[in-house]
Design brief:
Elements (H helix, E strand, L loop, with lengths): L1 E6 L3 H11 L5 E5 L5 H6 L1 H18 L15 H25 L3 E4 L3 E6 L2 E6 L2 E10 L3 E3 L7 H7 L2 E2 L1 H4 L8 E5 L3 H12 L3 E5 L11 H13 L3 E3 L2 E6 L3 E6 L2 E6 L2 E4 L3 E3 L6 H4 L3 E2 L2 E2 L12 E3 L10 H15 L13 E3 L5 E5 L2 H6 L4 E7 L4 H6 L6 E7 L4 E8 L3 H13 L4 H5 L10 H8 L2
Parallel strand pairs: 1-2, 1-6, 2-3, 6-19, 8-15, 9-10, 9-15, 10-11
Antiparallel strand pairs: 4-5, 5-6, 7-16, 12-13, 13-14, 17-18, 20-21, 21-24, 22-23, 23-24
Helix pairs in contact: 1-10, 3-4, 3-7
Bound molecules: flavin-adenine dinucleotide.
């Protein structure tokens, strides 16, 4: 009998297991594929490892802008993939060690929720029934595979890839078509463009980068067009054969040739076949429905991470896991999503937190919008020859608080934390003005934007 069973050892599951075990509870973590989940094995970490190599390569190729000349610079894609494997192994090993040192019992197997009897929740794994007082479901998500003619066959033949397969591709394609210009699609487009592939992005919406503020998304698109990436927006893929991707744009049929296709049109919660129906756990639009404590409609059954939908990011999964754990331990805590930062690790990076100009207007808020070029930061100028980074801030006029920050430019992924802290704590503009920023730092751009109001 356990205090808590956790299903899924991705960021949501392993963090919940570690935290709860640290409180002296008896815990069982069940994982069917790999410790670390999507994030460590085929998501956040592998993509960033590849993108770092691409950034170094790009820097070396364009070193002349900074007075550096080098010859015969090459990138070995296969070696990049080998390094990625090494990084993943190190980090997965680190998580496994942490689980061990925190005395979390781990079983590798496919878990299925069975029933709740006399307050005990039963879960079956490897033919055995395990019982606990509480359950945390953290089964994550998988790539959406749409019923577009040819996609299924393409996935079988290896012509069409998801994030999982593309991250292990030993030989880079000459021509890559990316279906879906969201986070995953853009990061992979960025990597393969940097290493010399011909990249085309086909996106159904009128803009790239999903809900990103339109100014930032258009600026990023321009950056990548300059680098040679082709974008087809408002374009719906209708068919894939073994050479071409067919799509409809403005009522006309077009096609583009590829050696490989990346399918990155979104993620779907992993909730089928895990036995939710045995406890009558409610779902909504394909995800587990939870309240602000991360509790499902069934007492003592919680769900965290991608399987609850919404903001499918590792850092959201971490925080949701903490909220679930605190509530299991009887500590009051609730999940809030108003200041979850989001980053796309392209080169330049883009990052945002809080309301965009569009969403603030949709909510009917009276806002002040300020936009500045990153060139207002001395360090940005020193390190980004010819860079066209921008920052856009959104201020609520009524309360004089910062409610949104959107940036394009390198280090945005790090700077956004400061902005998230300000938005999360409803900081007033006058309070932000008193914050001392290190100089020279690209982060000073926030201060510049605030003082420009
Ligand atoms: P997952 O990481 O999906 O883990 C769920 C685990 O549950 C899996 O290991 C699975 O095997 C296991 N499981 C499922 N069903 C069962 C079962 N029945 N029994 C036992 N085990 C089961 N997020 C960021 O914040 N930053 C990024 O830079 C970023 N980059 C990404 C890049 C890519 C290419 C992708 C695909 C995703 C990226 N994400 C990123 C998203 C991030 O990976 C996810 O939000 C995060 O992994 C979700 O964590 P999780 O714990 O909910 O689930």
């Amino acid at each position: 009998m356990y205090d808590v069973i956790v299903i899924g050892a991705g960021p949501g599951g392993y963090l919940a297991a570690e935290r709860i075990s640290a409180e002296g509870k008896k815990i069982l973590l069940i994982e069917k594929e790999h410790i670390g989940g999507v994030c460590l094995n085929e998501g956040c970490i592998p993509t960033k490892t590849l993108l770092y190599s691409a950034k170094l390569y790009d820097g070396a190729l364009h070193g002349d802008k900074y007075g550096i000349s080098a010859r015969d610079i090459t990138i070995d894609h296969s070696a990049v993939i080998d390094r990625k494997d090494k990084v993943v192994k190190t980090l997965v090993g680190g998580v496994s060690m942490a689980l061990k040192s925190k005395k979390v019992e781990v079983i590798m197997g496919d878990a299925q929720i069975k029933e709740k009897k006399d307050g005990k929740i039963q879960v079956e794994v490897n033919g055995e029934i395990k019982e606990s007082t509480s359950l945390i479901i953290a089964t994550g998500s998988d790539s959406v595979k749409p019923p577009i003619p040819g996609v299924k066959e393409g996935l079988e033949s290896g012509f069409v890839l998801t994030n999982k397969e593309i991250l292990s591709l030993k030989e880079a394609p000459k021509k890559l078509v990316v279906i879906g210009g969201g986070v995953i699609g853009l990061e992979m487009a960025s990597y393969f463009n940097s290493i010399g592939c011909e990249v085309t992005v086909v996106e159904m919406m009128g803009k790239i980068a999903g809900p990103t503020d339109i100014t930032i998304s258009e600026s990023l698109k321009k950056e990548y067009e300059k680098k040679g990436v082709k974008f087809y927006l408002e374009s719906k893929v209708t068919k894939v054969d073994d050479k071409f991707i067919y799509f409809e744009k403005n009522g006309e049929e077009n096609k583009v040739e590829a050696d490989k296709v990346l399918l990155s049109i979104g993620r779907r919660a992993n909730i089928n076949g895990i036995g939710l129906e045995n406890l009558n756990v409610y779902t909504e639009r394909g995800c587990i429905k939870v309240d602000e404590k991360q509790q499902t409609n069934i007492a003592n059954v919680y769900a965290v991470g991608d399987c609850v939908g919404g903001v499918m990011l590792a850092h959201t999964a971490y925080r949701e896991a903490e909220v679930a754990v605190n509530n299991i331990l009887g500590k009051k805590d609730r999940m809030q999503y108003n200041a979850v930062p989001s980053v796309i690790y392209t080169n330049p990076e883009i990052a945002s937190v809080g309301e965009s100009e569009q969403s603030a207007k949709e909510y009917g808020l009276d806002i002040i919008v300020k936009q500045l070029p990153m060139q207002y930061s001395g360090r940005y100028v020193a390190e980004n020859e010819g860079g066209s980074g921008i920052i856009k801030i959104i201020v609520d006029k009524k309360w004089n608080t910062l409610i949104g920050v959107h940036m394009m430019g390198n280090y945005s992924s790090e700077i956004i934390l400061a902005a998230a802290t300000m938005v999360e704590s409803n900081m007033n503009i006058e309070e932000i003005k008193k914050v001392v920023f290190p100089h020279p730092s690209v982060g000073e751009i926030i201060r510049e934007a605030i003082f420009s109001i």
